[in-house]
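Q: For a teaching handout, I want to show students what a protein-ligand complex looks like in token form. Below are the inputs, and the small molecule is glycine. Please produce the holo structure.
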Amino acid sequence: MKTRLGVLLGLLILPLTSSAASLKPGHDAVASAQPFATKAGMQVLAEGGNAFDAAVAVSAALAVVEPYSSGIGGGGFWLLHDAKTGKDVMVDGREYAPAAATATMYQDKNGNVIPGASLNGPLSAGIPGEVAALAYINRHYGKLSLAQDLAPAIKLARDGFPLDRMFHAMLQSREQKLKQWPAAWKVFYLDGQVPPSGYVLKQPNLARTLELIARHGPAAFYTGKLAEEMVNAVRANGGIWSLADLRDYQVKLRAPLSGEYRGMRIVTVSPPSSGGIVMLEALNILSGYDLAADSALMQKHLIIEAMRFAYRDRAEYLGDPDFVKMPLARLLSPYYAAGLRTAILPDRATPSSDLAPVTAEAPESRHTTSIAVMDKDGDMVGATFTVNFRFGSGFMPPHTGVILNDEMDDFVSKPGVPNGFGLVGNSANAIAPHKRPLSSMMPTFLYTKRGLAILGTPGGSRIISMVLLGTLDYFNGGDAQSIVSIPRYHMQYLPDTVFYEPGAFTKDEITGLEKMGYTLRETHPYGNMQSITWDYRTGKVRAAADPRDVGTAEVQ
Ligand code: GLY
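A: Here is the structure, written as tokens, with glycine included.
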């Protein structure tokens, strides 16, 4: 492993159980949302890389084979566990707002939010963080060179890969958006048509961009000719990026959040993700109940109520920690949770209208992506990263092959007006120069006496409830396969509706929940979770990709 230069802010020393600390899994494992990306990770591991190299390889490959979900024009969070030191660190490669951004930039002169302005085209794009994050992880944690880690992605971009049914569906759903942006249109559509499944998609410009980064490091992306091309194209099409915005971008190393649920230790991401705070608050509420002794109906009632109360605090308090003061100690205090528990009735849903309104309905999502990686030595990476909505802003600066994100929509365009996920907020998440928008992405590690788990998923505001359900499943004895498979349900305070996948509730539970006053709405399946579990006693390492999508998992 290379020397760790740079600012090591916020490292967390994780007390594993003594048996776990001295054990090694002895297997490499990768789970991702796309088979070619999983293979890229396994290839790099086979070439002598560690989990950190593999995470870089998988992330970069996803930029090529799943560009509707993530890419080097986007950003995200990488949660690392270094087996040698037992330390966990969160690499925040989240986008930041350009310096010229203002709190009202998506409002017209009457103060109304301009529909779509924060979602489409280069004005909706934050300054990307993924390249900086991958280069950082490679430099400080990897064993191989950046060029070795990026090689599988470059090959996939240059030689192409056959489109799967999901990619095909994404192109169908985004035809109108991408038609507006000629460079992206030319790359993804064949003579102006959605190419058929199986069509071999080549992205020579993206291959060239990745090669430049492989050869010259992140400076090739954030400065020089490529940066000039991106800035010129962005500005020529209504955006506000500057060369200084790109030059000044830096990853932030943050202390992960650490919490405890009935003996299980949870390590997850801190703000600017809301995910960790909201889930830990929900788990604190739930830890006051003996769920195992309750009926399945009562368990679901209490879990839904915990979601309701925890989501309530999201919009009120959370934002970029470098810009806003947040009452994190209070939100994570067991006394605060105990106070919230007193408001939960055993036989009745709490009307959300009794609490201050926070959020509206989130659309389901097939954008953003999660990976889970572990190596033989026990190094681990959980990461969730994104270009935000499908194909991000849709805008691709010509000759770069890079789809730019539309992450600016994760800010509050106007207090009280919902964003693309139906989430509202206040000044804590207002737009400001070089501020990072609030996220829900939350790669997470779980540690018990029995073993450990890595999990994460895309899904907008539903990410948090999905990871919460996966966490409870692991606590209850589940493994990677069950964590990614269990039927899901979601409540985010407002709308006062519980969304659930087919099979999440039995008929009797539906009747029981409705009797308690819940409004239930069945949705089609959502999320795309990736997980790895390691059982200390059996030595078994399991990796699983969400059966709802096309991803794959491999253990070697
Ligand atoms: N762009 C979705 C999120 O960060 O939560």
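A: Two things your students might notice: The chain has 19 helices and 19 strands. The radius of gyration is 22 Å.
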